[in-house]
Amino acid sequence: MALDEQSGVRTGVPESAADPQDDRPRMGFFTDTSVCIGCKACEVACKEWNLVPEDGLDFTAMSFDNTSGLGADTWRHVAFIEQRAPLGAQETNLGRPEGAPDSVDLGMPSFDLPGAYTGEDERGEFRWLMSSDVCKHCTHAACLDVCPTGSLFRTEYGTVVVQEDICNGCGYCVPACPYGVIDQRKDDGRVWKCTLCYDRLGEGMEPACAKACPTDSIQYGDLDELRERADERLRNLHEHGIGSAQLYGRDPDDGVGGDGAFFLLLEDPEVYGLPPDPVVTTRDLPSMWRHAGVAAATLLAGITATFLGRRR
Amino acid sequence: MSTSDVTKEGIRGARPGREAMTGAVSDGHRSRESPDRGRGGGSEFRSYYDQPVLNQITWKPQDIGGYLFLGGLAGASSVLAAGADLTGRPDLARPLRYTALGAVSGSLAALIHDLGRPERFLNMLRVIKWTSPMSVGTWILVCYGPLAGAAAVSQATGILPGAGRLAGLGAGAIGPAVAAYTAPLICNTAVPAWHEGYREMPFVFVGSGAAAAGGMGMITAPVGQAGPARRAGVVGSALENAAVATMERRMGMIAEPYKQGRGGALMRAAKVLTIGGAVGALVGGRSRTVSAIAGAALVAGSACTRFGVFKAGQDSAADPKYTVVPQRQRIRDRERAAAQEGGDGGEQGAQDPAGD
């Protein structure tokens, strides 16, 4: 699984994929957005643990989301979507597993259900979707493939991490990422992104965002196990009639070979600002080299031809 | 939507275990249409508040656009200089050798200047990675730069003329790679206007490089020896314009940034300048003045092409439309193909041969 930065030298193939020889489990995130409450504890925990600088105190005026997207100084981003769409009847505990203990009233302060006074007619159709976005730690990671210094590397956990003492800020990984995750820190020059808390994993701790998540929307673990859990959850939601629920980045056959951090979404990916069908750019690189080779030969032949014929 | 609808129901139940539960939803009849934020322009799509999917390219246009232009000029100039040297046209070879050295120095300077940490430039030489055109390109430049430099310095000083000639031929041999590799460099990204043009972009770039080198030859060499430069300018201009036209046709809606805004203006300027320069080379090649003007038009046109391509890339990264619409289309095509094939094509786990 772990693949060092020399992979390109060894194979010459645009594959930053996990090495099948390595039987250490690949670790990742499963973000179940159906239980995200948009509290942004993940954003805060990430910043605190990783000492990520302030990313601008902006007012985007588009929703409760004033972080707006992932970047050099935003490694977790909670998307917040307001939709004119039916929420359906409020049903607490939907999808609760059989035999689970009844819910307990903690005596927290509470209000009536929204629109309880007005009745169904005036309630309107409205819902909020929240989703905590993060680096996908792709199986075929474009950022890692294109990095000319070997600063980006694949760890023993199958995650993708920037070595900040090597990065020279060439910025190639930024447009290479199909998800718009990695970015350059302006005053620093280098690129930064989620490390999946590489320093915590070594100590047997889960990443800060997963630790802080109060609803377990962010789950950290062995990727195979997370996938099973996600499939189960999806089946459960579909059984309960939530047909729009879908897994994103779960499929190992997709354009990036599956994500190390994948999601359960309640809408199409683009609504959350995610590309619907991302493809690692280096998939087409062999063809690009071939086309460039032909073009170079054309240039050589063409200029040679200008010297042929009558001397003038 | 600012009534006190925000309800804190209180946490019902203990913290859920891993089998998290849905607090409040049901009735999953969610319709798929209703484009919340569709945009005009014919192609309907949805996005996150019109925010771009990709992060904007951090390369500075003058640095990397200039780098693309100078790389092409240097590479093609070396090829032309080597040919001139072999066919006994010293007055054409000399200025082109100087051009090659100047251009490759400028492109290297631009590349280093663009780094976030210029002092760490040498980290580029830690590895060779075929998966990174920037790595490959750095190594190409490492081979090419000294040869082009030796050829020019030997030319200027008269020291070691034999070795200088040899170095010039070596630079001419590597020159096409210098001119061509910048196409995979920018196409090997997720930027729609670059990636989707990866088949034609190398031809745009070598054509543009040949036009620029031909133009430099026409400006600097006496008309008696500049015949090959004029022909290189004409052929390069024709190749570039043909490749751009093919590229735009193939890309469909993703080609919009090449036609609109400042990117479009630069591409149109490039077309006028390169075609004008080529016509000038064809009809007025025997006149020193016309040669110089036409040559300058070719050089300027080549620069416009590079900056236009760069700007189009930026524009296509800034608008989620160019990311979402083609990818949605790909999914639809795949689903349709799967449905045709197997009666009930499952959408899960569909293979991904798409990409077109």
Q: Can you name the CATH architecture of chain B?
A: Up-down Bundle
How much β-strand is present in the residues of chain A? Answer: 5-15%
The description of the largest β-sheet of chain A is: 4 strands, mixed
Integer-rounded radius of gyration of chain A: 23 Å
User: Strand share of the residues of chain B?
Assistant: under 5%
- The CATH architecture of chain A can be named as 2-Layer Sandwich
Taken in chain order, the helices and strands of chain A follow as: HEHEHEHEEHEEHHEHEEH
What would your notes on this structure say?
- The complex is a heterodimer of chains A (312) and B (356).
- With 312 residues, chain A is of the alpha+beta class.
- Chain A has one domain (7-89, 116-280): 2-Layer Sandwich (Alpha-Beta Plaits), CATH 3.30.70.
- Helices cover 24% and strands 14% of the residues of chain A.
- In chain A, the strands form four sheets. Chain A has a four-stranded mixed β-sheet. Chain A has a two-stranded antiparallel sheet with strand order 2-3. A two-stranded antiparallel sheet of chain A has the order 4-5.
- Chain B is globular, with a radius of gyration of 26 Å.
- Chain B is mostly helical and 356 residues long.
- Chain B has one domain: Up-down Bundle (Formate dehydrogenase/DMSO reductase fold).
- The chains are: A alpha+beta (312), B mainly alpha (356).
- The interface between A and B is large, with 143 and 122 residues.
- Chain B: This is Polysulfide reductase.
- Chain B: Residues 1-18, 27-39 have a biased composition (Basic and acidic residues).
- Chain B: Belongs to the NrfD family.
- Chain B: Keywords: Cell membrane, Membrane, Transmembrane, Transmembrane helix.
- Chain B: One of its GO terms (cellular component) is plasma membrane.
